[in-house]
């Protein structure tokens, strides 16, 4: 069959004015940092983008003090209806500056512009909009008539959805009357620093949002700081464990949103075209850098061969390449270090006996790239079935009965997400009731909404973000 | 040449009805004079007829599927947009309210409270299902969930207070997806008529809110007896007049609500939202 080639449809970089260097945002001002500055790199090219300040212990101290002062004097005492107006302003400014934010996110992260434009930025704005509405309705949220904030929240976020994870953290914290010190990921600090400018445009009182950039040392100093009342972390389960140990024995509240090994369960009676779309999206959306990715495909044995062929055919049409091209489906892996981890785990898959397949796909010469990859013949004991790859790698396993599907899906130390594909509603609900996962999608995957709580069972973390339930993470309840 | 001697003559506004997103005069061609607090003439307001009531109900019914079918998030954005548009016209509405007899400070306070009221209700759009709906833990293999839904077309008879009462009655009706036919304050209809201009510039689909000015005694009974109106908020009706309206409303078993506020500026609570919700319980079997 003849196919027409796509013409390039590059998004302009002109929406963004990059500065040569960026500072911390403390007490409403951009300041230098005491640590050695680091460089953030464009994953699609490997080229440096900007130099960014590193916050040392003294800087973290300053930021926590600024947050405390703002919480005590301004933000805490402010009536909810007035706090709400600031959050609405932030939501509106995010909407107004959506193009700039989307382009910057794509440049700094490597994700396709289509995704940052259509998912990350609109959802970030929606998160502020949603939580703005809670700021003056906390008494209706089911936690008593007048729930109080915790105080100062230390928030550490990952690089896979930089602005969106910022929104998930900052919006509920502020709505509930807390102030924050947020540390963006070392490889993706730029949209957080642009968000600081959004806060300034909104005339948010100084110190309510403070942003400290840096590496793991900055994160440790922040999490361990005596002046914070609450620690919220999204990232790897390993770092989550370390943070839980750090916080152990203190009065700090803790919520963790960690790794996952989500399963997509495809039954023989599923609408197969839709299931193929969902499975491919579940595994390769955002280059697989998704904690709730459907990185395991559990397909009913009677349709397994046909289904895998269909998945492969769909994978072969994924467009891998320039993240700023509006046709691109799969962008760059976020960093050299992450590329090494993905490469290593995929090699382990082959060594352990699974069969590896990727569609023919020319990868760019520079930058960090990994072709969409599928493993068949995967056993439950293989590392690629147990460990979070956090890259564009899908492992295929099979099952015969619904009970076996549930057992295999639950055979993991994680418990974040799962997908069920079946046209039979009663079975879908039967399976959903038995899955030990915080989010279960039926005949869809990767749905996010500020009104819907998100979070994991087991070692995928504790606490929820979003919805009425997410407020509990930032209230003294 | 004679500029400094010639006083500029203001351009006056024609106050009209608001039906289906348009601003018609009454089909009857009638109007009635509206005076300020000192009895001086302000304007002729449209005096809506029974036919205007029917047209307004038709428009509200037509708008209902679209409005109730919007996502809650979208409805919230539009309600917030109403607040933004009203904020931008604070001076205009303060002047409208001063003309009804409020002093400057009271007029400004009422406008500010009206803006904040829209902001408050805007935030409810995507939360009311979480607060007023719930899963039902039935004793059997069923997935059962109860969700609030809008009741339909709601008739609103506004109180005499010109703006805040109207806003406080209207916002909780439309936030959940209901559409509305409003009978404005009879003695002070002009702020309500002007408020329709805010609604018309807020991305609110035409017909979601329809606003009639005229004689309450003439219009309210038509609304109360109309077979295609699902609920009625009689808060603006004096107690003595409420009984016949409630009796007329019984014809198609309209949901009735009437709760005058002694102080409209207080945070309203959720009674008005709940009054215009239905609860739908959906059962689904569970089994492998």
Q: Main sheet of chain B?
A: 5 strands, parallel
What is the averaged pLDDT score of chain A? Answer: 97
Q: Kindly report the oligomeric state of this protein.
A: heterodimer
The unreliable regions of chain B are none
Distance between the termini of chain A: 62 Å
In the CATH hierarchy, the architecture of the largest domain in chain A is 3-Layer(aba) Sandwich
CATH superfamily of chain B: Aldehyde Dehydrogenase, Chain A, domain 1
Detail the topology: elements first, then pairings.
The complex is a heterodimer of chains A (477) and B (288).
Chain A: E1 21-22, E2 24-26, E3 29-31, E4 35-42, E5 47-54, H1 57-75, H2 80-96, H3 98-109, H4 113-135, E6 152-156, H5 162-175, E7 179-183, H6 190-201, E8 209-211, H7 216-224, E9 230-234, H8 237-247, E10 253-257, E11 263-266, H9 272-284, E12 296-300, H10 304-315, H11 336-351, E13 355-357, E14 373-376, H12 383-386, E15 393-399, H13 402-409, E16 417-421, H14 425-434, E17 439-442, E18 461-462, H15 467-470
Parallel strand pairs in A: 1-5, 6-7, 6-9, 7-8, 9-10, 11-12, 11-16, 12-15, 14-15, 16-17
Antiparallel strand pairs in A: 2-3, 4-5, 10-18, 13-14
Chain B: E1 31-35, E2 41-46, H1 50-69, H2 72-87, H3 90-99, H4 104-122, H5 128-132, E3 134-135, E4 142-150, E5 153-157, H6 164-174, E6 179-183, H7 190-200, E7 209-212, H8 216-225, E8 231-233, H9 239-249, E9 255-257, H10 271-275, E10 277-285
Parallel strand pairs in B: 5-6, 5-8, 6-7, 8-9
Antiparallel strand pairs in B: 1-2, 3-4, 4-10
Helix pairs in contact in B: 1-8, 2-4, 3-4, 4-6, 8-9
How is this structure best described in words?
The complex is a heterodimer of chains A (477) and B (288). Chain A is an alpha/beta fold. Chain A has helices at 57-75, 80-96, 98-109, 113-135, 162-175, 190-201, 216-224, 237-247, 272-284, 304-315, 336-351, 383-386, 402-409, 425-434, 467-470; strands at residues 21-22, 24-26, 29-31, 35-42, 47-54, 152-156, 179-183, 209-211, 230-234, 253-257, 263-266, 296-300, 355-357, 373-376, 393-399, 417-421, 439-442, 461-462. Chain A folds into 2 domains: 13-258 and 457-474, 3-Layer(aba) Sandwich (Aldehyde Dehydrogenase, Chain A, domain 1), CATH 3.40.605.10; 263-442, Aldehyde Dehydrogenase, Chain A, domain 2, CATH 3.40.309.10. In chain A, 39% of the residues lie in helices and 17% in strands. In chain A, strands 13-14-15-12-11-16-17 form a 7-stranded mixed beta sheet, with helices on both faces. In chain A, helix 2 (80-96) packs antiparallel against helix 4, helix 4 (113-135) packs parallel to helix 5 (162-175) and helix 9 packs across helix 10 (304-315). The model of chain A has no long low-confidence stretch (mean pLDDT 97). Chain B is of the alpha/beta class and 288 residues long. In chain B, the strands form 3 sheets. In chain B, strands 7-6-5-8-9 form a 5-stranded parallel beta sheet, sandwiched between helices. In chain B, strands 3-4-10 form a 3-stranded antiparallel beta sheet. Chain B has a two-stranded antiparallel ribbon with strand order 1-2. In chain B, helix 4 runs parallel beside helix 6. The longest helix of chain B has 20 residues, at 50-69.
């Amino acid at each position: 069959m003849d196919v027409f080639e796509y013409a390039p449809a590059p998004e302009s970089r002109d929406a963004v004015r990059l500065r040569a260097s960026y500072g911390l945002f403390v007490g409403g001002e951009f300041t230098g940092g005491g640590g050695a500055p680091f460089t953030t790199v464009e994953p699609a090219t490997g080229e440096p983008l900007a130099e960014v300040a590193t916050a040392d212990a003294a800087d973290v101290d300053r930021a926590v003090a600024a947050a405390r002062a703002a919480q005590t004097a301004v933000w805490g005492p402010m009536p909810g209806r007035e706090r709400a107006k600031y959050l609405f302003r932030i939501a509106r400014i995010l909407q107004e500056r959506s193009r700039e934010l989307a382009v910057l996110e794509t440049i700094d992260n490597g994700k396709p512009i289509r995704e940052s434009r259509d998912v990350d930025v609109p959802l970030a704005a929606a998160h502020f909009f949603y939580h703005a509405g809670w700021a003056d309705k906390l008494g209706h949220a089911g936690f008593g008539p007048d729930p109080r904030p915790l105080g100062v929240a230390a928030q550490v976020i990952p690089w896979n959805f930089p602005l969106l994870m910022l929104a998930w953290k900052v919006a509920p914290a502020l709505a509930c009357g807390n102030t924050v010190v947020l540390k963006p990921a070392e490889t993706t600090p730029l949209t957080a620093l642009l968000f600081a400018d959004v806060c300034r445009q909104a005339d948010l009182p100084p110190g309510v949002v403070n942003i400290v950039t840096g590496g793991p040392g900055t994160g440790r100093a922040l999490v361990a700081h005596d002046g914070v009342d609450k620690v919220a972390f999204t990232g790897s389960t390993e770092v989550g464990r370390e943070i839980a140990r750090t916080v152990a024995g203190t009065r700090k509240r803790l919520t963790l949103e960690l790794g996952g090994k989500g399963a997509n369960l495809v039954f023989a009676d599923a609408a197969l075209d839709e299931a193929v779309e969902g499975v491919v999206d579940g595994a390769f959306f955002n280059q697989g850098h998704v904690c709730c990715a459907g990185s395991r495909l559990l397909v009913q044995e009677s349709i397994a061969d046909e289904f895998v062929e269909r998945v492969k055919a769909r994978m072969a049409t994924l467009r891998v390449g320039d993240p700023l091209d509006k046709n691109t489906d799969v962008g760059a892996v976020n960093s050299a270090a992450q590329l090494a981890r993905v490469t290593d785990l995929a090699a382990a898959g082959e060594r352990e006996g699974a069969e590896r397949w990727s569609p023919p796909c020319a990868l760019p010469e520079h930058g960090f790239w990994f072709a969409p990859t599928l493993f068949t013949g995967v056993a439950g004991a293989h590392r690629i079935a147990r460990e979070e790859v956090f890259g564009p790698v899908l492992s295929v396993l099979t099952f015969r009965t619904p009970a076996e599907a549930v057992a295999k899906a639950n055979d993991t130390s994680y418990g974040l997400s799962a997908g069920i594909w079946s046209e039979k509603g009663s079975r879908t609900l039967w399976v959903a009731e038995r899955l030990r996962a915080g989010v279960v999608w039926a005949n869809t995957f990767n749905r996010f909404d500020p009104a819907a709580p998100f979070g994991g069972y087991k070692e995928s973390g504790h606490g929820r973000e979003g919805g009425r339930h997410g407020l509990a993470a930032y209230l003294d309840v | 040449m004679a500029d400094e001697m010639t006083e500029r003559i203001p351009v006056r506004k024609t106050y009209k009805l608001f039906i289906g997103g348009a601003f018609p005069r009454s089909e009857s061609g009638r109007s009635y004079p509206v005076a300020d607090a000192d009895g001086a003439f302000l304007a002729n307001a449209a005096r809506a007829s029974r036919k205007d009531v029917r047209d307004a109900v038709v428009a509200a019914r037509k708008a209902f599927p679209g409005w109730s079918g919007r996502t809650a998030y979208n409805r919230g954005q539009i309600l917030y947009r109403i607040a933004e548009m009203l904020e931008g016209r604070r001076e205009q509405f303060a002047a409208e309210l001063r003309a009804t007899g409020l002093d400057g400070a009271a007029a400004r306070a009422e406008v500010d409270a009206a803006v904040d009221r829209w902001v408050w209700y805007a935030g409810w759009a995507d939360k009311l299902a979480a607060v007023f709906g719930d899963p039902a833990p039935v004793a059997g293999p069923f997935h059962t969930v109860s969700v609030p839904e809008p009741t339909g077309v709601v008739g609103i008879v506004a109180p005499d207070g010109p703006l805040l009462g109207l806003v406080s009655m209207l916002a909780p009706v439309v936030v959940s997806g209901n559409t509305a036919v409003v009978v404005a304050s009879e003695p002070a209809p002009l702020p309500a008529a002007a408020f329709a201009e805010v609604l018309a510039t807020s991305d609110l689909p035409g017909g979601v809110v329809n606003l009639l000015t005229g004689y309450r005694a003439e219009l309210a009974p038509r609304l109360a007896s109309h077979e295609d109106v699902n609920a009625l908020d009689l808060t603006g009706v004096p107690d003595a007049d409420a009984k016949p309206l409630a009796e007329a409303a019984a014809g198609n078993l309209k949901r009735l609500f009437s709760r005058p506020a002694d102080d409209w500026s207080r945070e309203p609570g959720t009674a008005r939202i709940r009054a215009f919700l239905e609860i739908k319980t959906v059962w689904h079997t569970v089994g492998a």
